[in-house]
Amino acid sequence: QVQLVESGGGLVQPGGSLRLSCAASGFTLAHYAIGWFRQAPGKEREAVSCSLSSDLGTRYADSVKGRFTISRNNAKNMVYLQMNSLKSEDTAVYYCNAEVSKRYYWGKGTLVTVSS
Question: pLDDT tens for residues 56-71?
Fold first, then answer.
């Protein structure tokens, strides 16, 4: 069955960096778009970035453009989110998401806390 497992979250100071990982299983990652979402305390879940299939490119929310980079390793069924120049407003639980066979799948999330 489809599974998405995030890792790499933690506590980081403002201006610091983290790399999140998402391990995908149960489907062939190369054939699908995959994305990162986040949900801050008391706020709705929002899209952060996505990587389209077949090298069709990437997309970013305006709030993270120039600071975050999404990448994928299709051979390993892994997706990454490199986050640089982190700000306190980036504090959230980050989720990996994929639509497979017309159904949306989510991981359980990994917490990123940006604080001094």
Answer: 789 999 999 999 999 9
Tokens representing 92 are 């959230």
Contact yes or no for 21/79 (Cβ under 8 A): yes
Closest of 18, 44, 23 to residue 34, by C-alpha: 23
- Asked whether 98 and 33 are in contact (CB, 8 A), the reply is yes
Token pair in block for residue 39: 């949900």
Report the 10 Å Cβ neighbour count for 48: 24
Please check whether residue 84 is in contact with residue 65, taking contact to mean a CB–CB distance below 8 angstroms.
no
In this structure, how many other beta carbons lie within 10 angstroms of the beta carbon of residue 104?
A: 9
56 DSSP 8-state letter: -
